[in-house]
Amino acid sequence: MAELWLAQKSIILYNRKVLLIQRSNYASGENDWEIPGGGLRFGEDLLEGLHREIREETGLSVYGEKLLYAMTALVSPQRQIVGLTYLSYADSDEVTLSHEHKDYVWASRKQLVELLNKPMLDDFEKHSILDILDID
Hints:
The protein is α+β, with helices and mostly antiparallel strands. It has four helices and seven strands.
């Protein structure tokens, strides 16, 4: 049976840095760096789901959410992901990671390019994300 999954992520800014979190062995992609977010639950409001995922993964509350872009990828013959990527701001840089992640960094532009995987960087390039972010 085919499956469609909606994932929401947010580029979270604090003091002109972007929060990256590193996956633990909890799920596939161990050691990959990513921006916070996750799946939307059935019946959940988009921003409520985004806030829930960010709180669960980082302990942060965010504000000023702006939808930056949407993407889709067929990850297997029976599974398609639709991704929404937002821009948000944090009031604090104090991160409390869940068991899904093992490390974090408030990344500069250089670190962002070095740490993120190619598909995410390709999405960022396609949507000119690095050009619109006010980061060091």
